[in-house]
Amino acid sequence: MSPDFLPQLTGSFAQPALENPTVAMVEAAYKYHGLHFRYMNCEVSPENLEAAVNGAKAMGWTGFNCSIPHKVAVIKYLDGLGESAQLIGAVNTIVKQGEKWIGENTDGKGFVKALREVINPADKHITLFGAGAAARAVAVELALAGAKSLTIVNRSKERAQAVVELLNNNTAAKVNYHSWTKKYKIESKTDIVINATSIGLYPNVNEQLDIDFDSIELNMVVADGIHNPPKTHLIQTAETKGCKTVSGLQMLVNQGVIGIKYWTSIDVDPSVMHGELKKVLHIK
Ligand code: NDP
């Protein structure tokens, strides 16, 4: 067999890109599975996004991720969107399908994949803190996965109302907004509690959600979108109570697994990616 020196190219366009560990976990999976693919972590400013996308197209890339601040802006350079990406209005994974470039959003899909390992969200009552980009992606996927109800608790009413209207108009889930001006008490009917705010994200690891922690009950599954640190104050509190938990690290790994499947058609081993992330982020 003649040698093949031409790997298939994938990567990420973001700003800042320096602290994004995705390259490490994706390349670990490529290597482990013997995939002739590479992943390039690229610092791309908003002014250069169009040129970067055209560059990827010109170089015959297989696909790429977009992170902050390009998740919405990149859509105008694509040929179409997947179902949930269309509802979310933002993409983080771009896939070349034939001659077309299609935008998908794996943030919420990765979260739901991680959640399913602990609980099926269908017919469940969910309390979701946050209404930003991650919360919107998570809420859309939970609604599409058949969640019975979602209570969106968020500081800014406008952002939350937009998510409530989007889901009530387009999915079967019953979605309502709850203001967050004082300590929030989680309703006892809640099956799944999710933090999709940035509260507690490194370096502000001591920041805590303004909730009545006594209202978290043993039968609730508690999840946090924050991957750094993976054991947030919320996750630690829930574990102390004996609740089942899902960390943001599991979400990050699973959205990577889904992205690699889009590009390579291979189901990679999440434990390889999890192990690499723990290594590069110095997590015990
Ligand atoms: P956004 O900036 O879009 O949204 C931030 C959210 O946090 C908003 O709902 C905001 O409320 C809320 N918030 C921030 N600070 C406070 C505060 N002090 N009090 C109350 N609410 C607050 O960010 P993203 O949605 O993109 O990201 C949110 C988190 O999700 C980040 O920590 C990010 O790391 C994580 N994430 C994890 C991923 C993973 O794979 N594990 C993937 C994507 C994101 P308001 O609307 O009132 O401003």
Descriptive notes:
It is a single chain. The protein has 9 helices and 12 strands. The chain is α/β, with parallel strands linked by helices and 284 residues long. It folds into 2 domains: 8-105 and 250-280, Rossmann fold (3-Layer(aba) Sandwich); 119-243, NAD(P)-binding Rossmann-like Domain (Rossmann fold, 3-Layer(aba) Sandwich), CATH 3.40.50.720. The longest helix has 17 residues, at 248-264. Bound molecules: NADPH dihydro-nicotinamide-adenine-dinucleotide phosphate. NADPH dihydro-nicotinamide-adenine-dinucleotide phosphate (NDP) binds at residues 107, 110, 130-135, 154-156, 159, 196-199, 201, 225-227, 248, 251-252, 255.
Question: Key features?
Answer:
9 helices, 12 strands, alpha/beta, binds NADPH dihydro-nicotinamide-adenine-dinucleotide phosphate, six-stranded parallel sheet, six-stranded mixed sheet, Rossmann fold, globular, 2 domains, single chain, 284 residues
CATH topology of the largest domain: the name is Rossmann fold
User: Which distinct ligands sit in these coordinates?
Assistant: NADPH dihydro-nicotinamide-adenine-dinucleotide phosphate
First-residue to last-residue Cα separation: 43 Å
* Rg, nearest Å: 19 Å
Classify the secondary structure makeup into a structural class.
alpha/beta
Question: How many helices does DSSP assign?
Answer: 9
